[in-house]
Design goal:
By secondary structure, this protein is low in regular secondary structure. The mean pLDDT is 72. The protein has no helix or strand. It has one domain. The two termini are 16 Å apart.
Length: 68
């Protein structure tokens, strides 16, 4: 899976760490359609993955590449 997003280095987040907001669309309003990237496709779900929390947001390994 791939997600294309703008990267910003900020104080408080380590350079080897990626932070991205997620809500599985819970807060999507009609005026926010196509409002930006979502990490939903990166989270492990489906058969064999059992959890009742959003803990997957803490252990998804990603590779960051320059677009284009």
């Amino acid at each position: 899976a791939r997600v294309k997003a703008r990267v910003q280095l900020i104080e408080g987040i380590r350079p080897d760490t990626v932070a991205m907001s997620n809500h599985y669309g819970a807060w999507v309003h009609p005026w926010n359609e196509d409002g930006g990237p979502t990490p939903n496709t990166l989270f492990p779900t489906g058969k064999g993955y059992v959890t009742n929390t959003m803990d997957q947001s803490f252990h998804v390994k990603v590779k960051v590449e320059r677009a284009g």
